[in-house]
């Protein structure tokens, strides 16, 4: 089985997030953690994920803290989903989230697209969740000393061998960011 290092992705996400946060008007800090979800007949547990295998369920949690002395207004948390993973609908917290395949356009779940058929007609189709690359939560205010946590789960693709390089070092990842 092919392994990839989720820490490499988490580190690149945090670095990208730091760049995004540096431009915010309020002092904000963030952390991104990755845990492997282990389910058994008795219970579900989580453990830190330094590596993952195809089929593993990973949970990404981005936590943002306002270390400033005033309320930060209109913050919108964005969580990237690395290539080689598939978003698990219903796993996002908070539940009210928008998704994107490109990091530019965000829409309500499930994502849909219009596809031109061979006969020239247009048909609306669901976008496969393996194509979701970003989740964004609605803008909110974050009080001084306050915290915001967002999370989502993904499954590591069973055909990860083809995309392991992009998961280990996702150059396009924007990181857990606040806009």
- Poorly predicted runs: 1-24, 161-175
Task: Work out the number of β strands.
Answer: 14
> What is the assembly state of the chains in this entry?
single chain
Mean pLDDT: 80
Output the radius of gyration.
Answer: 17 Å
Distance between the termini: 38 Å
Shape verdict: flat
- At the third CATH level, what is the topology name of the domain at 6-90 and 138-170? Immunoglobulin-like
Separate helix tally: 2
Q: What helical percentage do the residues reach?
A: 10-25%
SS-based class: mainly beta
Give an overview of the whole structure:
With 179 residues, the protein is mainly beta. It has a domain at 6-90 and 138-170: Immunoglobulin-like. It is built from two helices and 14 strands; from the N terminus they run H-E-E-E-E-E-E-E-E-E-E-E-E-E-H-E. The chain is flat.
List keywords for this structure.
179 residues; mainly beta; Immunoglobulin-like; five-stranded antiparallel sheet; 14 strands; 12% helix
Provide a compact summary of the structure.
The protein has two helices and 14 strands; from the N terminus they run H-E-E-E-E-E-E-E-E-E-E-E-E-E-H-E. The chain is mainly beta and 179 residues long. It has a domain of 118 residues: Immunoglobulin-like (Sandwich), CATH 2.60.40.
């Amino acid at each position: 089985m092919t392994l990839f290092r989720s820490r490499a992705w988490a580190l690149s996400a945090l670095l990208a997030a730091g760049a995004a946060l540096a431009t915010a008007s309020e002092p904000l800090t963030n952390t991104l953690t990755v845990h492997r979800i282990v389910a058994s007949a008795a219970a579900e547990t989580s453990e830190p994920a330094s590596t993952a295998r195809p089929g593993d369920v990973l949970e990404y949690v981005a936590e943002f803290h306002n270390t400033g002395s005033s309320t930060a207004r209109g913050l919108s948390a964005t969580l990237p989903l690395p290539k080689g993973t598939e978003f698990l609908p219903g796993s996002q917290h908070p539940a009210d989230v928008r998704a994107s395949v490109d990091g530019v356009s965000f829409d309500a779940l499930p994502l849909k697209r219009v596809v031109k058929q061979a006969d020239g007609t247009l048909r609306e189709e669901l976008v496969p969740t393996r194509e979701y690359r970003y989740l964004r939560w609605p803008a909110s205010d974050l009080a001084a000393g306050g915290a915001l946590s967002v999370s989502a789960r993904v499954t590591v693709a069973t055909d990860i061998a083809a995309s392991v390089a992009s998961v280990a070092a996702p150059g396009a990842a924007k990181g857990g960011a606040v806009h």
